[in-house]
Specification:
The chain is of the alpha+beta class and 111 residues long. It is 39% helix and 26% strand. A 5-stranded antiparallel sheet has the order 4-3-2-1-5. A hairpin with a 2-residue loop joins strand 3 and strand 4.
Length: 111
């Protein structure tokens, strides 16, 4: 009586491949949505920031990550620039710490 109730050892589990696809499909959809909403926009912002940093030139007004605003007096190399934060006060900064480059079009209007 017990042997009749036990399933056969070699019997298929019933739709193994289909069950696997149904189980994995939500995870694939979650990853695609995560990529479209989070990863792709972040990569785009990173490329824009790198292009902005590469285009920094003498005379540009910049804002550093620490909130210091100054005027670029010299671009030392691809990684550093010298900015004047007050008359006669110049500091060297790493260009990747620049958060914003203010040009003639983006400068706020003086009241």
């Amino acid at each position: 009586m017990m042997a009749a109730a036990a399933p056969a050892a070699g019997a298929p589990a019933g739709g193994g491949a289909a069950a696997f696809l149904v189980g994995i499909l939500p995870w694939v959809l979650i990853f695609v949505i995560f990529y479209m909403l989070m990863i792709r926009p972040q990569q785009r912002r990173m490329k824009q920031h790198q292009a902005m940093i590469a285009a920094v030139k003498k005379g540009d007004e910049v804002i550093t990550g620490g909130g210091i605003r100054g005027k670029v007096t010299r671009v030392i190399d691809d990684k550093e620039a010298e900015i004047e934060i007050a008359q006669g006060v110049k500091v060297r900064v790493v260009k990747s710490t620049l958060t914003q480059v203010l040009t003639a079009q983006t400068k706020p209007a003086n009241d």
